[in-house]
Specification:
The chain is α/β, with parallel strands linked by helices. It has one domain: Bacterial phosphonate metabolism protein PhnH (Rossmann fold, 3-Layer(aba) Sandwich). Helix content is 25%, strand content 23%.
Amino acid sequence: MDEHLLTQALFRDLLRVMSRPGTVKALPPRISSISPEPLVAIAATLLDQETTYAVLDDEQLDRAVRLKTEARTAPLEDADFIFVPGGASGGRIVHAQRGTLAYPDTGATVLYRVESLAEEGLTPTLELSGPGIAAQAKPCIEGIDVDDLVLLNSINEQYPLGIDLILVDTRQQVMALPRSTQIKVCGT
């Protein structure tokens, strides 16, 4: 399968998880032909020369995204896409673009690399509600800083302003938390 068809398949998968918050989907099996790093494959799908991005604390990932997409780097507060490969932004996501009332779609999309994703588990990390969720979803996310999830809640309080989240785990699975999703962090 050529790269163009793979990025189309990946885009459809991203749309599916964005429309069903808390749902976990395996990335297309041949995604490694785009890049062995799933975040770079997603970047190749979403970014182009017209978009800007910032990568937190990972020069190798920054270089790979730049080479694969030809997108422009920008300060975090101006970036359309923000990559958090370590699972923690150290509070820096509060500076991400949230859009404006006239153009809420200009809010940033933040992509996290985490250890694992599961739709359910013995100890859920989150309780989700909102559009695309039938009753309530209780996914487990290992390897993300809980403080970032708490910040995400406050960032997205003024919907339609806010940021969207895409999470990718080490098993090449993806989950999304769009800005319309109400999040309760379990144990806080």
